[in-house]
Pyrroloquinoline-quinone synthase (Candidatus Terasakiella magnetica), 253 residues
Amino acid sequence: MIKVTTVLSPDELEAALRSIGAERYHNLHPFHKMLHGGEMNLGQVQAWALNRYVYQQGIPIKDYAILSNCEDKELRNIWRQRIFDHDGLGDDIGGIERWLRLCESLGLDRDYVKSMEGVHPASKHALETYINFCRRAPLLIGFASCLTELFAPKIHKERIAGMLENYDFVDDSMVGYFRERLTQAPRDVDFALKYVKEHAVTIPQQQEVIDALYMKTGVLWAQLDALYLAYVSPGMIPPGCFVPEDHQAAAAQ
Ligand SMILES: O=C(O)c1cc(C(=O)O)c2c(n1)C(=O)C(=O)c1cc(C(=O)O)[nH]c1-2
């Protein structure tokens, strides 16, 4: 793990953050490699979409938590766009609705998805870790925790191409969520990275920024570990969680 021993220049700090992504971002997880490579069946893709809904619906809550630590009106006005991107505003239905439509297109019942009844406990715990971290962290560190988004456009491109090419049950309308993120994430991350590079100027601040990114890559990785154990191998689905066989009939209709 990176230990900051002398103050890093802004570009050195960025390089350190990027190196964490290169080593730990969840595009490297075997679950994603299978998902994008066409190695999953419908039930496994459903399990992923259902569980990932937990993260989606919690992102605005996390951003409100960050804003509750923000005393600067100008910064709040910039950051709140992220909330609108997910919750929707005016004509834009928002990312959460786009995700629900993806789940429905995969044959899942909207109300079942929204209830989050069938999700793996690890999905909920991972999200809670992220939200609670942002609730308590100083603003700079809360901002830094979103910086996994530096690496997200690459995974979204891989996912759009991989899922369209490899699954006959996925069509263009279903990858709308990821297409939107291709422009939203770089805009978000440009702002957050610039802010972090300007404001993390001491050794402790830089270390906390780096540790926030370690925390976040762990949050993302842990969710996929749980899904892998439940839905790939050895098939250890926790009691009460989504069982693909129970949902195939709806998908076939
Ligand atoms: O599909 C993905 O792999 C992925 C990863 C991440 C991420 O790196 O946290 C986000 C998203 N997608 C995403 O769609 C999204 O809106 C988002 C917001 C945030 C955040 O931390 O504020 N991360 C992510």
